Amino acid sequence: MTIHQLSIFLENKSGTLVKVLNLLKQEGIQLIASTIADTAEYGICRIICSEPVRAYEVLKAAGVAVSLCEVFALSLDDEPGRAADAIALFAEEGISIAYLYSFLLGGKGVLVFRTDNAEKARTVIESNGLGIIAEKDLSKLV
Amino acid sequence: MITNDSEFFNPEMETLTRSGIEALQAERLQATVRHCMNSPFYKRRFEECGLTPDDIRTPADLYKIPFTTKQDLRDTYPFGIASVPLSECVRLHSSSGTTGNPTVILHTAKDLDQWANAVARCLWMVGCRPEDVFQNTSGYGMFTGGLGFQYGAEKLGMLTVPAAAGNTLRQLKFFTDFGTTVVHAIPSYAGRLYEVMQQTGIDPRRDTKLRTLVIGAEPHSEDTRKRIEEMLGVKAYNSFGMSEMCGPGVAFECKEQNGMHIWEDYYIVEIVNPDTLEPVPDGEVGELVLTTINREAMPLLRYRTRDLTRILPGECPCGRVHKRLDRMKGRSDDMIILKGVNIFPIQIETILMKYEELASDYLITLDTQEDNDVMIVEVELKDQYIDDYAKLQVLEKDITRRLRDEILITPKVRLVPKGTLPVSEGKAVRVKDLRKQY
After folding, report:
1. A29, B169, B359 from A56: Cα distances, Å
2. Mind telling me how many Å the CA of A120 is from chain B's nearest CA?
3. Which of A52, A69, A86 is the last residue of a domain?
4. Closest listed residue to residue A39, CA positions, set B364, B430, B379, B413
5. Are residue A81 and residue A137 in the same domain, yes or no?
6. pLDDT surpasses 60 at B425
7. Partners of B197 in the beta sheet?
8. What distance in Å separates the CA atoms of residue A110 and residue A47, rounded to the nearest whole number?
């Protein structure tokens, strides 16, 4: 039910992000979505890509500080209010969202997020029949 | 009775000749060694070496006694070296830290009085008189630079302002309101004082009566001294002490500003090669080894200070025969001195290694930022903990707090990706010192 996201710990120095992206480029791995959060000293770069497990191994082998995390990726109709409706379902169950980002892909709105309670979130998705993106879909999406 | 014109606070001791010092040292050493047989630690140590107090007649016999080390102080923590019952002690000072055992030094009332006399002698030597107003910017409490200077300055008869550390604006207000003439500050804080004076439009020459600065507890160069003197319009005198030897007042510069007279009626000085532990000739750098000969509660015989220095050969024009120590050249162990606080890297390592989120490499950088000495602790984060921002922030804060509790200084903690710190081959470089002018 979850997909793999790369979380990369970057020092705030120019060139650190390029190094990571070039490694993926050389392997023909394509980005689907990415986001960087920052503090004064470091940033965490989160990436959804076509082949997360292979990307992880490539980065790891190159000495990049990377971890592979499981996140939910909801696939929603591209209409106003769909995100609000979906998030409300989690809120009603008292589930907090740690972080979230969204993008459009193949005519669908995708919400990627991590919660403080994966078990409960799973139940919410199942019982409400929410559309999700599966890991195997990632390589087909691009 | 001494008058303000007197050159000496204690003329009898300060004007001793070399042979006078030698005779006094022999007498006090014999008494000290006999007294040490009341200490369970020294009694056992003498027995182990087949020594009796009669074997130690003069400083030339000292070599027969094994060195006393910081480890000995730790092993006998807290009271195992004391040569008097605890009921006769009136104060203790203890080192910071919880890693291993801290070290404890006990004092009787007479010890405190003798200590105050030594500090008063130092301050008098550089021109302090009862008319002066003395402001102490040291931390008080366990840090001996606080109470040590406090009692010494009172003994001399100055009006004292026990301002204690920090709150620079308040320090400056005291300068101007109370007419402070003498300040005790660690060298890095002197720079900070000037910086804030500039920000608040205070001209030290015009707006204060500052005349004398006592600087110590932190290694500093001649250039740093000159810079401080130039900035604040004062004479700055170098002070040397350590809690094991009471605290401040062990050695102090005279007005010549060329080496610190170590009071040989209190201490017998040896300088040894830190590797072979053999004595080195005057003028050569080695580790300072001190024997206290004027202490009741806890005399220490041949204490290895780990400070590297040398005895300046030749006579001092000031007339005092007491030997002169050069500025400290460094340490024969890995102790860091930051803002006057003694820190061992192992204290930091011990804390860091308690965190499962952290990998084993770390780097301590000492740097000067805006005239302020800071410690930056970079530590590698294990990869699996990367994704959670909130946790990383909490982690940083938590490490900072625990380090501060341990070393009494707030470091800047920086999480870095695994693999970015220099890889250790053999002995890792754990400490980088980029501080200005050292």
Report:
1. 11, 53, 20
2. 19
3. A69
4. B413
5. yes
6. no
7. none
8. 14
Mutate to test the interface with B, among A2, A6, A7, A9 (most CBs of B within 10 A): A9
Q: Do B416 and A42 touch (CB under 8 A)?
A: yes
Residue-level pLDDT at B438: 41
Q: Which domain does A107 fall in, by range?
A: 71-141
Same domain for A49 and A96: no
- Residue B382 distance to chain A (closest CA, Å): 8
CA distance A140 to chain B (A): 26
Q: Kindly provide the b/e burial profile for residues B79-106, where b requires at least 16 CB atoms within 10 angstroms of the residue's own CB.
A: bbbbbbeeebbeebbbbbbebebebbbb
**What's at B377, amino acid-wise?**
V
- pTM of the predicted model as reported, rounded to 2 decimal places: 0.79
- pLDDT, one tens digit per residue, over A40-85 is 778 899 999 999 999 999 999 998 999 999 999 999 999 999 999 9
Measured between alpha carbons, how far is A91 from B267 in angstroms, rounded to an integer? Answer: 73
Count up the domains in chain A and report the number: 2
pLDDT of residue B378: 94
List, for residues B380-416, the tens digit of each pLDDT value: 998 888 888 888 999 999 999 999 998 889 999 999 9
Instruction: Grade residue B278 by pLDDT with cuts at 50, 70 and 90.
Output: very high
